[in-house]
Amino acid sequence: MFVRVEDLVAEGFPEPGVGVLRDRGIVELNPVQEAAVREGLFRGVNLVVSSPTASGKTLVGELALVSAAYGGGMGFYLVPLRALASEIYMGLRVWERLGLRIGVTTGDYVDRGERLGRYDIVVATYERFDSLLRHRPGWLGRLRAVVIDELHVVGDPYRGPVLEMIAARLLGSGTQIIGLSATIGNPGVLAEWLGARLVESSWRPVRLVEGYYDQRRRLIVFADGRSERVGGRVYNNAVTLALHSLSQGHQVLVFVHSRSRAEKWAERLAEHMEAQDTLGGGRAGLVEALRSEATRGEYEKLAPLIARGVAYHHAGLSAAARRVVEEGFRERLIRAVFATPTLAAGVNLPARRVLVSIKRYDPVRGYSAGIPVFEYKQMAGRAGRPRFDDIGESIIYDARSPSEARRYIEGGAEPVESRLGNQRSLRIHALALVASGEAGDLEGLISVFAKTLLSIQYRSRRYVENMLRDIVRWLIRHGFIREREGVLEATELGWVTASTYLDPLSTSRYLGYAAEKSDPGVLWLLHASAMTPDYARSMPYISSRIIDMYEEEAWAMSSDGEIPPPPRDSYEYDLWVKAYVHARMLLDWVSEKPVDEITGVYGVGPGDIYSAKETMAWITGALSRVASAADLRDHAEGLEKLSLRLEHGVREDALELIRIRGIGRVRARLLINNGIRSLRDLASAPLEKLVSIPGIGERLALEIKRQAAELLRGEA
């Protein structure tokens, strides 16, 4: 018998919260939630909750945070992705009915975050919360509970070390830690690490039935003994099964390990959709939203597909285009979506039937190889929509044999392992601990690292000590920290690097380039910044064919001093050429070239451009502070302006106008072309002149004039 929500009051949950739960249709807890309460959710006990996708783990986190906040404390809900942060934030706002203040923060690593103290519950990305811990804001004393969603991400090579250090710094602070994880191979190890009780369950609200496609027999074989005969082959297995599933009345989500294939296969499926589906069932509204919000190129490619109930979804799409696809799929206007696996780890978009690829091209091996079982389980777990489906079905469509498919269906997920033991992670987090004052000597560093998963798994204090000694020596040698009689303290350069969230190697490399250049231009600044490890590790893919096209041009630019000279090392040289092409792409962005033009030249998607410019805006903004600390005034001023230009995609003459909310790169250029170049021009411009400019109606004209006058008064 499940626990009724009224029973939570006896466990310590605030009574007014029961009404909020009931109004959401939650009258009793499911087995996962009940077990979490029983193990001490409301008694401050650390918990690791390991259960399948859609098993109600999010509510476990909500209950812990509401209980902590209602008692006068403060709680954080941590997620790996910005998209997830927005989704969780919107869900948590229902608790404002109790008088709780809900906030969200996902960027601006330089901001100390003191203003967040006015909230009771805050949603944040891992990186943003880590940056807050470095700044040590005054409200940390109120912190009572932290929910770590997607705890298994600790095994990710990039985000894992950040998450691991967050947990290590929280352990022993008295803050309750609630780790939420999909099914993994070693949840007990994670629980041991966090000093937590383990809540492990295979329960799902919608029963999952896994299966595979036997191409030779043209048969879908399910693990529960059922089978389905599939008709003639259409293009490939994925399209064939998608068309078959739609004919059965199922909405279908198809996972593909390639953007180009996701797009091409969606187009192939759309060709077979019935003509009467065109613009049926409210799809005209989706098409119109796409036309008004997405780029022209996205509209031209996606609109014909959406009109027939088909779409694709990947990180190359703009946020607006992804939002239209997600909304259409949730409302069942879009019946089939071909998506890359990033969707499985991010947006909550379940489907009655999910088609899964277990093969991915491995560039090291030079051929397609099997993915980890854990990744397969993540994608398969998207099958079945709570409250709509009685079962969810996942089908492997590219297994080479039935036995290979069964290894995934019947196999357990791999154990999660620490990724903290690499040089990059160690230097970043060791510097952060010294800069924040949390570790004043080598023993202090060792003490914090002793609480990491790395230490638990290696079980060797000496191993950790030796790594940290090497890292401390490196940080001293490169001027980030100093040692006086065994006491470690950050230099100004070290503090700036840690507080801006830069990798110390990025700082060191940029200063090395800057030492040879006293008057850098925009292209030089972009190229030097693109060669830092912080940009290189996340740069969007541009094909080698396009990279090679610009190699000779890069040499010419280097000869003219427009970019840093090429390195001798072959690996660094390849990065140098790639960085030039990325710098060139971002130069086009700040030169106000249309997004569709940039995507055509460099073979990237709008989402790639936005991701690259956001990353580079952060790096150049951080490096401007580094340059200032190093007394490189020309670099500091140039980087600061460039950071703002990257954020908004504008030329330098538009920087003043974009301070106005409602004025972006397009409106700013229209205003400048009409002789309005400054806040003063804007404030004094006749209303009728502003209204005559395309895209500026009377309401917006009045608002931007009001803002301009307000900013001018503030500067007076």
CATH topology of the largest domain: Rossmann fold
Widest β-sheet, arrangement of strands: 10-9-8-17-14-11-13-12
SS element count, helices: 34
Q: What is the multimeric organization of the chains shown?
A: single chain
Bulk shape: globular
Average pLDDT rating: 92
CATH architecture title of the largest domain: 3-Layer(aba) Sandwich
Layout of strands and helices, then pairs:
Blueprint: H1 8-11, H2 15-23, H3 31-38, E1 47-50, H4 57-70, E2 74-79, H5 82-92, E3 102-105, E4 121-125, H6 126-135, E5 143-148, H7 159-170, E6 176-181, H8 187-193, E7 197-200, E8 207-214, E9 219-222, E10 227-229, H9 237-247, E11 252-255, H10 259-270, H11 283-293, H12 296-306, E12 310-313, H13 319-330, E13 336-339, H14 342-345, E14 353-356, E15 359-362, E16 367-370, H15 373-380, E17 391-396, H16 402-410, H17 423-435, H18 442-449, H19 453-458, H20 461-477, E18 481-484, E19 487-490, H21 492-499, H22 504-514, H23 522-530, H24 533-536, H25 544-549, H26 551-559, H27 570-590, H28 595-602, H29 606-629, H30 633-648, H31 665-673, H32 679-684, H33 687-691, H34 698-715
Parallel strand pairs: 1-6, 1-7, 2-4, 2-5, 3-4, 5-6, 8-17, 11-13, 11-14, 12-13, 14-17
Antiparallel strand pairs: 8-9, 9-10, 15-16, 18-19
